[in-house]
Amino acid sequence: MAGPTEETPAADGVSEERASPAAARPRGFRLFGEDKSVHKALGGGKTADLLLWKEKKISAAVIGGATVLWVLFEVVEYHFLTLISHVLIGALAILFLWSNATVFIKKSPPDVPEFQISEDLAVNIALALRADINRALGLLREIALGHDLMKFLGVIVGLWILSEIGSLCDFLTLIYVAVLMLHTVPILYHKYQDKLDNFAAKAHAELQKQYGVLDAKVLSKIPRAPPKDKKQN
């Protein structure tokens, strides 16, 4: 009888060699990091589900509500205080008449739920705001002390862009555009992630190249504040 051939391990080795490069192939440049999904980058939970249209009815309701408010304030030129007053007048009048009419029509009065802000919710909101405000203040302090030139340039460019946008539209329109972008940009990026990441990689490489030239010719010659030495006990 012929002995068992040793071709099978070789074949397995070839298949492993073919499979391993695909498995170990780097994903390349990612806007949110190598192992961070869009859902995780948005914070996860219900907020990410809302922005990625996993809850389509709620997402559509947010877009619809924002559109109605924008039309009322910008197109119809309704004032905020007037709108709130008219809505409360109509709601209270309907509920009052309904509650008193139940005596004559022999039906149960409307079940008006009791709304209260829980202490835990208020504390969590305050803590989240405190953390974000402290982070922003720390960033501004670091920039003001001249420790990070790249952050300084980024903040200056961002504020300049914000000022230009503010000169083109009012604050309410800006908020409405931001709501629309939050409900369209993440889902579009999630759908075309590979193409957008490739484009972002090229843009990132070009920006790094141009920044290197700018740093060598201009930025490196600007005197900077020396970093503070940490006090040793």
Number of beta strands? 0
Shape: elongated
Straight-line N-to-C gap: 82 Å
Q: Which parts are unreliable, with pLDDT below 50 for 5 consecutive residues or more?
A: 1-26
Evaluate the radius of gyration: 29 Å
**Tally the helices: what do you get?**
10
Helix content: over 70%
Based on secondary structure, the structural category is mainly alpha
Walk me through what this model shows:
With 233 residues, this protein is mainly α. It is built from 10 helices and no strands. 71% of the residues lie in helices and 0% in strands.
SSE blueprint:
Elements: H1 7-24, H2 38-41, H3 45-51, H4 56-75, H5 80-105, H6 119-144, H7 149-168, H8 171-182, H9 185-191, H10 193-217
Helix pairs in contact: 4-8
Task: State the main characteristics.
233 residues; 71% helix; elongated; disordered N terminus; mainly alpha
In brief:
The chain has 233 residues and is mostly helical.
